[in-house]
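Project standup — Tuesday

K.O.: blocked on the structure for the chain from last sprint. Re-posting the sequence here as requested.
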Amino acid sequence: MRVLHGADRRDTLRLVSFFPGCDGVDLAYREVGEGRPLILLHGFMGDATLWLRHGQVEAMAARGLRVILPDFRGHGASAKPDDAVAYPPDVLADDGFALIEYLGLDDYDLGGYSLGARIAVRMLARGTTPGCTGPRRAVIGGQGLREVLGIGGGAGAVLRRVVAAPGRYQPGSAEGRTEQWLRSSGQDPVALLRVLDSVVATPVELLDDIQVPTLVLMGTDDERAVSAEQLVAAMPNATLAMVPGDHATAVAAPEFVAALLDFLAG
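H.V.: unblocked you, prediction finished:
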């Protein structure tokens, strides 16, 4: 497998395909590499390029993986309807199952970072939908038990404050940076809030039922690390790996990719 550079990488960023979400809306995804399928889910207010910016996907493809990178609804190149009816509870997990069915996958691995990790946990907890099997292995990045249980605010709480009171925050603050990002990126804050409202917490009793071997990957300086060990303890077949970085940087660390690849090869 060749590593993508320069124009090849830019072409990969542009090569977006679409599949019908659980209710038929157009959702975007990218594919890089050939081999065993690995679905990777991105974080809140991001898109699939989370996994492309620092060469992570090229490293995965070089190890014989077919990396599948969807954009959540309300994000990236996917549809961004504003109507609340388009965001029922657990819709992002439903869209994940729709992608698996659309691609005809019956043997694959699943991973996610931040919000993507919470959605991956939802998919694990719910098991399978008709015609789809669950993943062989799963990777949960940047989330501890508190986040999986729906405790704490994070980026979602900041966005809610910005939308409720625009123009009131100091440049450089978390709210100021989020407001600037919304202006510069052209994202739809209403759609993003609808996404937040759709996210479902996963109770501990459901975590105890997850039998899929799972790796919890966490940055040593991530504030979410305080409950990472608790998440591992709540899942029967989970292990923990700590890598350098905080919530924003750990996903780009070479150690993150190395730990993911070693786990999936096991």
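K.O.: great, moving the ticket to review. The chain has a mean pLDDT of 90. The radius of gyration is 17 Å.
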